[in-house]
Amino acid sequence: MASNNTASALEKEQIFGLAEKEMEYRVELFNKLTHTCFNKCIEKKYKESELNMSENSCIDRCVSKYWQVTNLVGQLLGTNRPPV
After folding, report:
1. Is residue 34 part of a domain?
2. How far apart are CA 10 and CA 21, in angstroms?
3. Neighbours of 66 (CB within 10 A)
4. What is the rounded radius of gyration, in angstroms, for the C-alpha atoms of the chain?
5. What span, in angstroms and rounded, lies between the C-alpha atoms of 68 and 45?
6. What global pTM score does this model have?
7. How far apart are CA 82 and CA 77, in angstroms?
8. From CA 84, how far away is CA 24, in angstroms rounded?
9. Domain range holding 41?
10. Looking at the domain assignment, is residue 44 inside a domain?
């Protein structure tokens, strides 16, 4: 019975490890997407406190293309998720 408790504890540790890696992956993906689209779409000199229409459109297109490309690359690499 003690071996069952040990096995389940080991499985839980592995599950938490995988969940932690997945969270790190998602945070890194989000940070790269944010950085890429911000640098591409937002002017370096801030003129207004809010995004203008062209910046909003650019960000929408950038995020959409970013997801399409990362999903495509992920499929080409044979993984279920896009690479970071």
Report:
1. yes
2. 17
3. 18
4. 20
5. 30
6. 0.67
7. 9
8. 10
9. 26-76
10. yes
